[in-house]
Description:
InterPro entries: GntR_C (IPR011711), TF_FadR/GntR_C (IPR008920), Tscrpt_reg_HTH_GntR (IPR000524), WH-like_DNA-bd_sf (IPR036388), WH_DNA-bd_sf (IPR036390)
Strand order of the largest sheet: 1-3-2
Organism: Streptomyces gougerotii
Pfam families: FCD, GntR
Keywords: DNA-binding, Transcription, Transcription regulation
Number of strands: 3
CATH class of the largest domain: Mainly Alpha
GO molecular function: DNA binding; DNA-binding transcription factor activity
Number of helices: 10
Shape: globular
Structural class: mainly alpha
Amino acid sequence: MTDKLTGAAGRQYVADAIRHALRSGDLVPGQRLVENDLAESYGATRGAVREALQDLAAEEILEIVPRRGARVRMVSVEEAIQITECRSALEQLCARKAATLATDAQRGELDRIGADMRQAVADGAWDAYSALNQRLHELVIEASGQEVARRTLDRLNGPMVRFQFRLALRPGRPARSLPQHLAIIEAVVGGDAAAAAEAAAAHLDDVIEQLRSPAASART
């Protein structure tokens, strides 16, 4: 008998825990991941850990090195920019469709997210703002009904976890991005497809500008 997490639940738990460790800085690019250590840390079986590592390697968050095990994949600034360029095209599509297809409930949630984002910036609640940012992007994609775009964006966002975390921590970043997010919300809620796409493009263009800045020149 064992109390360790196993099966699909263990696999998902370990994968989510590794993603969180990357966001928080507990894991860094190039760091080697040892199955036994992860199993002990996360209270999971080695089988669940091995499957989680394979999932994260498929998402290009990790890489599996023959006879060496898994390690956190290095992502260059140039690759991060190219990923963001692809994200921009897809998020513009989703924003455009969401403006037309979003339900009343989804538009209401977007309005609430906007109000909560304003409050989070006013309060300096950066963790809350980051969570709201993530939910905003998820909800626009969800409202678009574009499942192919959603799956592709999930894959593109995997290697960007560390960059997104570092960018979110830059001084003044939430205040800079807030008007961009509010513009997306206003256009989608108002049903203006062209404005929604333009707002999504402007936001991702700014992300690219931030990635090109000297502060992002070192690998993360």
